[in-house]
Specification:
By secondary structure, the protein is of the alpha/beta class. The protein is built from 8 helices and 17 strands. The strands form 4 sheets. The chain has a 6-stranded antiparallel β-barrel with strand order 12-15-14-13-16-17. Strands 3-2-1-4-7 form a 5-stranded parallel β-sheet, sandwiched between helices. A hairpin with a 4-residue loop joins β10 and β11. α1 crosses α7 and α4 runs antiparallel to α5.
Length: 349
């Protein structure tokens, strides 16, 4: 059976491609070129940057599979970068990796696979797909590397045609395989930032890369008292303390809300960041009935907490947390688990 695997130039997708070939699949490696050349020159060896393309090609040749570079600049701009920019302009904190997985890594990859006569696609994600009446997503067995949070929005048709060979491995085991094979990517450092903002300076990217103009406004407390000024709400996120420049306050102040219609940054003490209820939209559910006990992750590095979910209609739900959590952030994803099973999730309003 033919399978197309997305190769980012890292050790994970390199080993995943090798494992599929060893399992008897007819494997084709694909690397997407997502950025215009000016962005590519700044990307160095980040995901799908120039060096990453070279690394993916060399690994493909070393394990004996064909490799192609596919131009997805327009798709990436429309579905990922434009979304990223719009969310910040609207006072929300986006998660472009989830959107990229849904729209590009699994969306575009499936379309290209069909052109090449491949029945399935594969990635180097640490998660597992199982079929139990319907296709379900489970955490990878390596808790420190599990990436199921970033995959919650995949549809049934995407899960049905996807393979994730690394879901049952730890990162250490993956690197050991790469070392044994002598793959060029065996010691490659893992990228921890958004691929198109490799320096983590989101404000700079929005201003220089996306040409979002500064729109100065007021920093106010919950009562509406003006405490200071800001250069633009796109430079802030919920829970942020740095950059407020609010001296003389009785307590340390944090961003507790971003009001896009009034262009205001609303601040308060640390206790104002705690919330026990919130709404989510554009929900995706992978089960027909909710398990009795759910755990919610309100961001990728969140350890998880007990949650109750009530469907409210039109793709929305209300989430209640018996243990209030800090800095629940509009624009981020809330993903729900029953043990290692991904129940589903939605986008925090």
């Amino acid at each position: 059976m033919r399978v197309c695997i997305g190769m980012s130039g890292g050790v994970d997708s390199s080993v995943a491609a090798y494992l599929l070939k060893e399992q008897g699949y007819d494997v084709i490696g694909l690397t997407f070129r997502n950025w215009p050349q000016d962005c590519m020159s700044r990307a160095e060896d980040k995901c799908c940057g120039p060096q990453a393309v070279t690394d993916a090609r060399m690994v493909a040749h070393s394990i004996g599979i064909p490799h192609y570079v596919v131009d997805e600049i327009d798709t990436f701009q429309r579905d990922v970068i434009d979304y990223f920019v719009a969310e910040y302009k609207n006072g929300r904190t986006p998660n472009p990796c989830i959107v990229c997985n849904e729209k590009v890594k699994f969306g575009s990859l499936l379309r290209k696979a069909e052109e090449l006569g491949a029945a399935q696609i594969a990635t180097g994600h640490y998660a597992r797909i199982e079929k139990n009446g319907r296709y379900v997503l489970r955490k990878g067995i390596d808790d420190h590397k599990d990436q199921s949070y970033f995959l919650f929005s995949l549809r049934q048709d995407q899960l049905a045609r996807s393979l994730m060979p690394l879901g049952g491995l730890s990162k250490e085991e993956t690197r050991a395989i790469a070392a044994k094979l002598g793959l060029k990517t065996k010691d490659k450092v893992e990228s921890q930032e958004i691929c198109f903002v490799p320096d983590k300076d989101y404000g700079r990217f929005l201003k220089e890369g996306a040409h979002v103009p500064d729109l100065p406004g007021e920093i106010v407390n919950r009562a509406g008292k003006v405490l200071g000024r800001h250069a633009g709400i796109q430079y802030f996120t919920i829970g942020q303390r740095e950059g407020l420049n609010l001296g003389g306050q009785p307590k340390p102040m944090y961003v507790v809300e971003l009001d896009a219609p009034t262009n205001r940054v609303i601040v308060g003490p640390a206790e104002d960041l705690m919330r026990g209820e919130f709404d989510i939209a554009n929900c995706i559910w992978h089960v027909e009935e909710f398990p009795a006990s759910l755990t919610a992750k309100i961001r990728y590095n969140h350890k998880g907490c007990p949650a109750r979910v009530t469907i409210t209609g039109q793709g929305r739900a209300r989430v209640a947390l018996p243990e209030p959590q800090r800095a629940i952030t509009p624009g981020q994803a809330a993903v729900f688990y029953a043990g290692d099973l991904v129940v589903g999730g939605g986008w925090i309003l």
